[in-house]
Amino acid sequence: MGSTSAHKNEGLGRRDVIKRSAALGLISVPTMGFLSACASGDSSSDKKVEKGKVTKANPLGVNETAPLEVVIFDGGFGQQYAIDAEKKYNAAFPKAPKVKHVATQKIQSQLQPRFNGGTPPDLIDNSGAEQMDMGVLVGKKQLLDLTPLMDAPSIDDPSKKVRDTLRPGVLEMGQFDGDPVWIMYYAYTVYGVWYSQTALEKLDAEYPEDWDAMLALCAKAKKQGIAGWTYAGKYPYYLPFSLYPFIGKIGGREVLDKIDNLEPNAWKDPAVKAAFEAYYELYKKGYILKGTPGLTHIQSQTEWTKGKALFLPNGSWVENEAAPTTPKDFKMMVAAPSSLDSSDKMPFGTIWASGGEPFVVPANAKNPQGGMEQLRIMLSEESSKNFTKQVKSLSAFNGGTDGLTLSTAMQSGVDSLKKAGDNVVNPRLQDWYVKLQKEQIGVAGIGEMMAGRATPAEAIKKIQAFADAAAKDQSIKHYKHQ
What is the 3-state secondary structure (H, E, C) of the chain? Predict the structure, then answer.
């Protein structure tokens, strides 16, 4: 567990001394496409295969002769890790046809008609730009409750349930409203502030543990023609990857819970104001790479790996995604957000980490037991290690790194989780309310502020209005922390 770092300020904390600037005006923001699932589909049960006999070797009762269809998002993680796990399914059930494996980047386009027609696949990696909206899928009862999988014996140790082998927060992420588990997030993402250890060493600097040190380092870098920060300006909902845990660190995780719950005035909490003003100071002092508001996530990552900026808010997929432009001596690392000051409610090291790469078994799948069994195989130590080796990411399995040589990025992620201990936060807006999080809070709120087109006060007022509207919108399913 980390500890709050000492700071040089006497008397007033930073949240008391940060000054807001005058308003610079607002401009309109283009609307982004919002993907959502809709029709509930045919729920006729005669299309399901007959359940098999439950045994020690087959705890979920998979029909040993039934076909299995798996659809994988062919993105940053590729598909080979899934193909390898499917081979293990075929070995376990040799009487069944070879697993039908489909890889695509068009999840929504290809699968929504099948959901609507009541003929979805048995297991889906619902990810990517065409990801079907999770909140809508759950609200329309289109997903199978995975509790039987969670309560099944794990592959490696039958005395342990699958749920007991998962990393912190993974199970909870799959729960939207009470105990049922609708989603199995297979990857485990560490969000935070990413940097090059080599770049810091060239500046004779260490990662700044408080905001004064952060500003001082940015000033030092600026003198050498290096920006302090860059980010995905065209997709500014990347900024919360470091901003949300910063808010939680300042005011406590209950502030983030109130935001997730769409509670009145949640965004007007002093912790939000302090965090927004701190980030706005990066803009005001010229510590953000020029042109950042016009950059995509790939372009911002490329500028960062070229050494044009020190810090980048992102998730742990960035190592694999930025690999083509990352120098061999880059020493990619991730860290938790800096402290604001000594009155923060959570210690330095508080970080956002949670499941990623969401797998679902449709409620109308023909072979739902097979879909869950495929996930059980993927949550074994062997499959987890294979995933980590191939895609440079941790999996939801709590382990799977023993004996592996980890990159600096992965090792720093493991070290950050160890340092955080129980101080891991998990904001839910991005999977509960996709449109609110991306289009409204991200683009129209935080994005406008960081581009200098809105003050923190204006951004907060705007975001609170968006949240209030979402809370009153009866056409969407609402969720709350239990």
Answer: CCCCCCCCCCCCCHHHHCCCCCCCCCCCCCCCCCCCCCCCCCCCHHHCCCCCCCCCCCCCCCCCCCCCEEEEECCCCCCHHHHHHHHHHHHHCCCCCCCEEEEECCHHHHHHHHHHHCCCCCEEECCCCCCCCHHHHHHCCCECCCHHHHHCECCCCCCCEHHHHECCCHHHHCCCCCCCCCCEEEEEEEEEEEEEHHHHHHCCCCCCCEHHHHHHHHHHHHHCCCEEECCCCCCHHHCHHHHHHHHHHHHCHHHHHHHHCCCCCHHHCHHHHHHHHHHHHHHHCCCECCCHHHCCHHHHHHHHHCCCEEEEEECCCHHHHCHHHCCCCCCEEEECCCECCCCCCCCCCCEEEEEEEEEECECCCCCHHHHHHHHHHHCCHHHHHHHHHHHCCEECECCCCCCCCCCHHHHHHHHHHHHHCCCEECCCHHHHCHHHHHHHHHHHHHHHHHCCCCCHHHHHHHHHHHHHHHHHCCCCCCCCCC
